[in-house]
Design brief:
The chain has about 375 residues and is an alpha/beta fold. It has helices at about 10-15, 25-30, 50-60, 70-80, 95-105, 120-130, 145-150, 175-185, 210-215, 245-250, 260-270, 275-295, 315-325, 350-360, and strands spanning about 35-40, 90, 110-115, 135, 155-165, 190-195, 220-225, 235-240, 300, 310, 330, 330, 340-345. It has 14 helices and 13 strands.
Length: about 375
């Protein structure tokens, strides 16, 4: 085999690829199981909105056509929802696509990006892929230490990534404190506020950061339809930002980066507030169910504002394997510097109960 390494920058060769949660089909092949539940990838267990499914069916006859490359209808609906002009919105193949665009626009060898310990793995991956310097700031109580992150900014820093709620730990930041922090960041730094789990925030703690982009010209807010809106398979997200930033993003954005079915489904899902509210309520009940179960089992956990929760199970690899044998897929987070923890997505009530019973058995093995 021809050695191609001499053609590839060392910073690309050094990347450890992102590892997604184990698919149900893979575990079925490995262990011959046919009764598997997946609580690994922070997906919505309710299934998609009926309105989204209806919109997909209506769009099927047009599969021979390219999507609307500008996503006019979805952007118009988002514009109305957030009271922002349509040219302040950029659509992406999931919000992850927006994170990649930010790194393409602002990062290159010789500059740096700041992010927190125990934060989404794509931040260091996207930074390293551009040859930029990664600055990981130690977390405080598994969450963002904003003062330390500000202190870590260098003259060559161009991006700062903040996840709120944070994945994988589920911690959240007080809105007033977060906006004050954004306002205090030096002018040479663009802040990317990753709000993939924003819709799961409890009542009274909602983030109204969509409006912050009017006050803070170097702020980018990213959100997704993959989580609370139940459209993970379609990969559609969006970024809210000033038009001068959106123009830069559109220069690096791939043509037709959001497919037609994703566009119509997201548009329909955005209008189904009843589905969204039911998802939020069921998630809150599921989180309470898991926390109560952990307390009965004597398992420590990190309180979460997302649709997942991290539990300190001790020998996490051993417990993880035992759960797999029981037909339950969760997410190890040793790659996030949390070797004793597993991350569990909130499932349906019966799935949560089955997981807790299996966890009790797994810890005795």
């Amino acid at each position: 085999m021809t050695d191609l390494k001499y053609l590839v920058p060392e910073y690309i060769q050094a990347i450890n690829p992102y590892l997604p949660g184990k698919p149900i089909s893979e575990l079925a092949r490995e262990l011959g199981l046919d009764d598997i539940i997946k609580l690994a990838s922070n997906e919505n267990p309710r299934g998609p909105s009926p309105a989204a499914v209806k919109a997909i069916h209506a769009a099927l006859p047009e599969l021979t056509r390219y999507p609307d490359g500008n996503g006019f209808e979805l952007k118009a609906a988002l514009s109305t929802r957030y009271d922002l002009p349509a040219d302040w919105i950029v659509l992406g193949n999931g919000s992850n696509d927006l994170l990649e665009m930010a790194s393409l626009v602002f990062l290159h060898p010789g500059v740096s990006a700041v992010y927190s310990q125990h934060a989404f793995a794509v931040y260091p991956l996207a930074t390293q892929a551009r040859g930029a310097t990664r600055i990981e700031v130690p977390a405080r109580e598994f969450g963002h230490d904003l003062a330390a992150m500000k202190a870590a900014i260098r003259p060559d820093t161009r991006l700062m990534f903040i996840a709120n709620p944070n994945n994988p730990t589920g911690t959240s930041i007080d809105p007033a404190a977060l906006e004050a922090f954004v306002a205090s960041v030096p002018e040479h730094v663009v802040v990317v506020l990753d709000e993939a789990y924003n819709e799961y925030l409890p009542a009274g703690h909602e983030m109204h950061s969509a409006g912050w982009v009017k006050r803070h010209p170097r702020l980018i807010v990213t959100r997704t339809f993959s989580k609370a809106y139940g459209l993970a398979a379609l990969r559609v997200g969006y970024g809210l930002m000033r038009p001068e930033l959106a123009d830069l993003f559109n220069r690096v954005r791939q043509p037709f980066n959001v497919n037609s079915l994703a566009l119509v489904a997201a548009h329909a899902a955005l209008g189904d507030q009843a589905y969204l509210e039911a998802s939020r309520c069921e998630n809150a009940a599921g989180l309470k169910q898991l926390m109560t179960g952990f307390e009965k089992l004597g398992v420590a956990y990190i309180p979460s504002a997302g649709n997942f929760i991290c539990a300190k199970v001790g020998d996490a690899p051993k417990v993880y394997q035992a759960l797999l044998k029981a037909g339950i897929i969760v997410r190890p987070v040793s790659n996030y510097g949390m070797p004793e923890y597993l991350r569990i997505t909130v499932g349906l009530a019966e799935e949560n109960e089955r997981f807790l019973a299996a966890l009790a058995g797994a810890r005795k093995v």
